[in-house]
Design goal:
ten-stranded mixed β-sheet, alpha/beta, two-stranded antiparallel ribbon
Length: 512
Amino acid sequence: MKRHSVVHQALLGILAVTLFACTSDGTDAEPPVKTPQEACAALSGKTIGGAKLSDPTLVAAANEIGEHCKVTGLLGTSLRFELYLPTEWNKKLYYLGGGGFDGSIPAVSLRPWDASGGYVTVASNGGHDDPMGAVFLNNPEVQKDFGYLQIHKVLGAVQEIVQERYGEQPARKYFEGCSNGGREALIQATRWPEDFDGIVARAPAYSFTELSLAFHNNMKHMLGTPGGKISAAKAATITSAVLVECDALDGTADGVVSNVAACNFDPASLLCAAGDDDSCLTQEQLETAQAIYGEFKLPDGTSIYPGWGPGGEGESEGWSPWLIDGIQGVIPVPGQMLLAESIIRYWLMKDPSYDTLQFEPDKHLPEIEQAAEILDASFDLKAFFARKGKLILAHGTSDWAISYKASIEYWNGVAGAVGGESARDANMEFFLQPGVQHCGDGAGADFVDLLGPLENWVEEGKPPSTQNLVSSKLDMAGTSKFQRPLCKYPEYPRYNGSGDVNAAASYTCTKP
């Protein structure tokens, strides 16, 4: 009797649940719809896709950014990310890359087209919280996360969170990054070709190890060679000389060297004839300048880095080899010195006290190769292109952190890796930004949205070079001071000879 009673009660319970789940007309009832606040709060404390979620906050619409749920995630012990889940979702995902050694989460909300367009937006810290790089010492897990794993890991978790929040997966996924974020972009395209449909790589540090060695070479000349240091005043003198020789090669003297392919500036023209002042370079300073502009090779002739192009030497950029007093309040040494020292001490030599000015790359090739296997992106985009992935490469010609010449090498290298220029050009386009510094600023027109053109390419088959793209130089209020057409490499914007010099319509993209 007791057993029969228990079964009877269970049946009644099932019947009750069934009755409550049905409407009066016998159809299944829809579960109650959560408000945006409830949907956001429901993520608190959950573990989804292996990520522990915390601090969900519903952020009201403001400053052209739509209402969204901001939530923090943690994978493992130190891989952190922030996720923005819009109330009005466009069924797309946008991942923003980092910079430097990462170590913090980029402020994605500063990019108004990210959230206002309804994108699920995500950014991560590179797998650690140390922007100076000491965390890499004897830490293979963090090295691999930073090198090639962290974005792939986070994306996997984020897709499960998106499924939980919206009940479906993103229809399209996009990635954009500059500097180390540009390297991350190319890592995604080469190592994880299935992750994203479209990628923007701006000023990519794709060969991180070789870039670090080039930084080290610059600093050996600037700081390790008696009399080799070039002052900020002399760097400004170099810029003035470059403009005199090369500014008008694009048809107008506007303070920007646009026809960089035709600029053959030789710093030897500034060699001091007698004495030394800010208007000239001593022999030691000339050798420093020649080292920075010139191709960096090992003693056996192996090419390491293509060197930098002239223009913008005297402009304020924290990663410039010319301005070596560091970034006030941020880092106490030159940016190039910081990155080179960190890679050499914590990754290659595994010795925090190592005197990096004594480092000779040709004596540590096995260590360099081992680091390159983790850090560097290859030219091989075949798998990414095979699934119709599209990639935009862009680089400023006054970038003194990462040379635009390195991106030209990457562009050419991809053609060799994927079966020729036509295979490359069907899926990848490259744009130089004259006079633009590292990821922005400089004398040139530095502001251009590439996410929209990328979407048009992926979703509508319209290559960016057919979309009449225009770069702007904005003032502090966000008003355009002048514009230039964004030209597909190797073309540059040439002044037509008449018309408003500040208007993009007065310029034509022209081959050198």
